């Protein structure tokens, strides 16, 4: 059996035909630490070789959500100290994301409540992804001076039209209908039936459980906004996207422009570049390799990640001081440098 973290932040148990993974830091909405990532990976490796485990089920402790992301406070402290802990965390986290995506047994993720950032990485690459009416799914990294990662750019780049670009640049949140439309989830199970659904997996095949417990999802709020979203976000630069949003005459588009301009200019430019490049990649592993390059470069070269976490999580004044301050001040050559190969430090998933 795989080792568990000393603090029981991941609970591992066998239940009938399934192995259960429970993220167990409910006070922090199950935010991922490095030991949690390692424990999840160890369990998946062990259960892949265990013939008595027919499927794996991921859920989160508490009532607030599956996982609010990574432990960004700890990452900020490491970045400020000039350490390598954040890069080491991302390396193991992205490898876990890739393992989940290619896992040979059914991987069922209960995406109930808040599912953001790293929470998306450990759920939305699974084979059977379930949302409820309480689900809020997002890749909000630009709001903290970072970029969508954990394979999020792969998912966002493949959402219908320009919905992924809209979500990434605004740090927008998806309800269950939106998550289904955008390819972040597969099935809707009403919250009142989620417990019985998860319990049934101990005895029956996941697809049979889905057939018995799934219901009709709420409509997607984003679906009705496709026309202006697809038109405005098809532009080649963040500046032009903002201009199209402001001049569209659509109130929701102007609101989106205001949201975008609140975020880190460097993170916005890097995010758009990541998304556009992800469209031409051949698989999730390539996207994770690309995200790792940019994540490491931002940690080393930009103050915005540390500043964004300070403003939104540490001091909570919601007044980040970005550097550079405006989109016009971000040099394109600096954005290109974020994608530079890391030499011996490459993640190298696409080569494996």
From TrEMBL:
Keywords of the record: Hydrolase
Entry keyword Hydrolase: yes
Documented EC number(s): 3.1.2.4
Known catalytic reactions: 3-hydroxy-2-methylpropanoyl-CoA + H2O = 3-hydroxy-2-methylpropanoate + CoA + H(+)
CDD domains tied to this protein: crotonase-like
InterPro entries the UniProt entry points to: ClpP/crotonase-like_dom_sf (IPR029045), ECH_dom (IPR045004), HIBYL-CoA-H (IPR032259)
Recorded superkingdom: Bacteria
Domain Enoyl-CoA hydratase/isomerase, residue spans: 18-339
Cited PANTHER family: 3-HYDROXYISOBUTYRYL-COA HYDROLASE, MITOCHONDRIAL (PTHR43176:SF3), 3-HYDROXYISOBUTYRYL-COA HYDROLASE-RELATED (PTHR43176)
Protein name: 3-hydroxyisobutyryl-CoA hydrolase
Biological classification of the source: Bacteria, Bacillati, Actinomycetota, Actinomycetes, Kitasatosporales
